[in-house]
Amino acid sequence: MKKLIVTISLVLTIGLFCSQVYAQQGKFKGIVKYTLTWEGEAVPPGAPTTLEIKVFENQTAFDDIFSGSKVITNSTSGISYSMFDFSQVPVEGVTGKWYIKDKLEPKDIENNTYKISSETKEIAGKKVKKVDVTFKSEDGTEKNEVIWICDEMGPEQDLRFYPGLKGMPFEFPVDIEKYKITFKVSEIIEGGKVEKADMLLPTGFEEVTIEEFQEIIATLMEAYGGGSDSDI
To answer: Which residue among 30, 74, 134, 216 is least packed, with the fewest CB closer than 10 Å?
Structure first.
């Protein structure tokens, strides 16, 4: 009887350890849902109010609501892909499926400062930490933000919103033109029908550099009478 009790205790201990490992950063699999709150005059009709990010351990996949691209990131390799499907655009030199590959380099984050404080709160059932963020531009000007991150789940580092940040942003602002948009996690679905295949670059896409893609956009704008300038 004693041997049986010891065996059961060992199984429970192993199970508890495994569940703790699963909850660690870089081990989570599921969907993280955000609610977007817009501030500013005359918020554009149809402005997106939600964002879903699929997470598979250290990788993410989501639709970029600003650029219209599909994004895949891998925090282990520091590589992200932005995919644009222009296959239905009837403009010579534009029609096709394109992707831009980006590699996070040390120089890309050397002017980003993330100061994690001891202040915490709860968002979507998770404990999150307050972070004071400072971005320094090449001309020396600084931009400061306050965000909240979770370092108990999600990829080991962020690549898209706060490159190099050791945690998953759970509440943060985005300034675009005359609007301020606050992203805040509203729901976490563990498992969430997320598979490794969701993190693979689809076939049929052709790689282009950012400069080549700017030329594609310039051609598109010119074809539709919008000029040839591009801010992408």
So the answer is: 134
In a domain, 216, yes or no: no
Residue 28 and residue 190 in contact, taking contact as beta carbons nearer than 8 Å: yes
User: Do the bridges between strand 29-39 and strand 50-56 make them parallel or antiparallel, or are there none, so unpaired?
Assistant: antiparallel
pLDDT tens digits for range 142-168: 999 999 999 999 999 999 999 999 999
Q: What's the CATH code of the domain at 151?
A: 2.50.20
Instruction: Decide: 205 and 99 in contact? Cβ < 8 Å.
Output: yes
Q: How many angstroms separate the Cα of 65 from the Cα of each of 53, 90, 181, 214?
A: 11, 23, 12, 19
User: Can you tell me the distance from the alpha carbon of 71 to that of 76, in angstroms, rounded to the nearest whole number?
Assistant: 16
The domain in which residue 127 lies consists of 25-210
Q: Can you tell me the distance from the alpha carbon of 60 to that of 54, in angstroms, rounded to the nearest whole number?
A: 5
Rounded Cα–Cα distance for residues 153 and 169 (Å): 11
pTM over 0.90, yes/no:
no
How many Cβ atoms are within 10 Å of 142's Cβ, its own excluded? 10
**What's the number of CA atoms in the CB half-sphere (13 Å) around residue 93?**
12
Number of domains in the chain: 1
Q: Is residue 135 domain-resident? A: yes
pLDDT digits (tens, 9 = 90+) for 123-140: 999 999 999 999 998 788
Number of neighbouring beta carbons within 10 Å of residue 160: 16
